[in-house]
Amino acid sequence: MKCPLLICLFLSFGSLVGLAKEPAGTVLIHPGEVVYVRFEQKGIKLKLLSVSKEKDEYAQVIVTRDPVDPAMKAMTGFKIVNKFPLDLLCKKEMRALKIGTEAPLVPVRVVGGRLFSEDLPYFVDEIALTGFVLEK
Q: Who's near 40: CB < 8 A, 6+ residues apart?
């Protein structure tokens, strides 16, 4: 009787650890997704309010990742649209989950009211964006 209880306890603890992996204020995007992000703005500081895959006309930031074609094994597009009048700064981390690697990159700057675009390797499974701030 003790064994099933221990297994349940272990599984519940493991799921809590998995949920706590990402720090608050992190936006995750995977190939083929479009994510709409809303913030609460206090001066140049931003607090993440919501992240949605449903179209949101009031989202201040829109992040897009093109789908990966496994047959092509080519670069895929990654875009950030900044609807703030000020420049948006954030940290970006690329993750290739299948091979277990993470690569923090140079912070991203998106000019106010503009689009940031770059190509990423096809094997990047996930991109984490954190540390959102505005710069005058």
A: 46, 47, 49
How far is Cα 73 from Cα 46, in angstroms, rounded to an integer? 36
Tens digit of each residue's pLDDT, the chain (136 residues)? 443 333 333 333 333 333 346 778 899 999 999 999 999 999 989 999 999 999 999 999 999 999 987 777 788 899 999 999 999 999 999 988 877 777 776 689 999 999 999 998 888 899 999 999 999 8
Give the C-alpha separation, 52 to 33, whole Å: 10
Contact call for residues 134 and 84 (beta carbons, < 8 A): yes
Instruction: Look up the pTM and report it.
Output: 0.79
Domains annotated for the chain, with CATH where assigned, are 24-135 (2.60.40)
